[in-house]
Amino acid sequence: MTSSHTQLAFNLERESLYAQEDFFRGVSNDRAFQAIIEKKAWGKACGQLLVGPSGSGKTHLARIWQELNHGIFLNLTHCLEEGKEHLESAQKRVAFILDDFPGNVLEQDVFHLYNLVCEHQGALLILSQTLPQEWPLVLLDLKSRLYSLPLQTLETPDDEVLRAVLRKRFADFQIAVPENVISYVLPRMERSFKSVQDFARRLNMETLAQKKNATLTMARACLEQDC
User: Fold this and answer.
1) Regarding beta strands 47-51 and 151-153, do their DSSP bridges make them parallel or antiparallel, or are they unpaired?
2) pLDDT classification of 5: cutoffs 50, 70, 90
3) Quick one: pLDDT band at residue 13, thresholds 50, 70, 90?
4) Which whole-number Å values give the CA distances from 212 to 12, 140, 198, 219, 227, in the listed order?
5) CA distances to 22, 53, 193 from 171, in Å
6) Residues sharing a CB contact under 8 Å with residue 4, sequence separation 6 or more, in sequence order
7) Are 77 and 104 in contact, with CB atoms under 8 Å apart?
8) pTM score > 0.90 for this model?
9) pLDDT tens readout for residues 109-141
10) From CA 9, how far away is CA 204, in angstroms rounded?
11) Which domains are delineated in the chain?
């Protein structure tokens, strides 16, 4: 899109709210959704691991769990300090989330945080792009505890889910997109929710700039990021 087009276009994108009704379930994510969201699925475990590639829906699923459990995202680097503060003032069961694990985490801090959460009958959800066996952990006590946690995996989103997300994003932007356009772009785009959202945003901007409904020509240009 040219700079003049950009000046004409008004970006009407809504902020993503990660609502549960906006989480589209399919073969790639249904089992993880049920295991993470349904309390009975946790059993006696005070933690769960959620692993999946970038753009597979980990953050969205964690945000839903956060809403249901009044959860708190902790900074990996300061997780023990922040966790202790919340535990001291907590009036009810605590629920913590560690994202992008293991990152630059201090293993001793996570070990103590995990023990505190279990001691207070809380819950800890750990998100990662890699499987536990690939984590470069050295502290054996931490490894044994984390390796014992239930592991849920998210696969790369399948066509059914991506198609539903595309339709939802277009509806959010209030733009009409023919089904043949969706069928054209799906096999030609990166298999991630971020890619879908970025494409929908670009196509929305282009329809606003041209003051036209979405067309296959526009979609081709946006796939090539030439819009």
Assistant:
1) parallel
2) very low
3) very low
4) 15, 60, 19, 13, 14
5) 12, 26, 16
6) none
7) yes
8) no
9) 999 999 999 999 899 999 999 999 999 999 999
10) 9
11) 29-153 (3.40.50.300), 157-223 (1.10.8.60)
- DSSP β-bridge partners for residue 73: 97
- Asked whether the beta carbons of 173 and 12 are under 8 A apart, the reply is yes
C-alpha distances in Å from residue 157, one per residue of 89, 193, 206 = 39, 8, 26
For residue 8, pLDDT over 70 is answered with no
Report residue 119 as tokens: 């001691």
91 burial class (0-12, 13-18, 19+ CB within 10 angstroms)? exposed
Q: How far is CA 10 from CA 13, 206, 210, in A?
A: 9, 10, 11
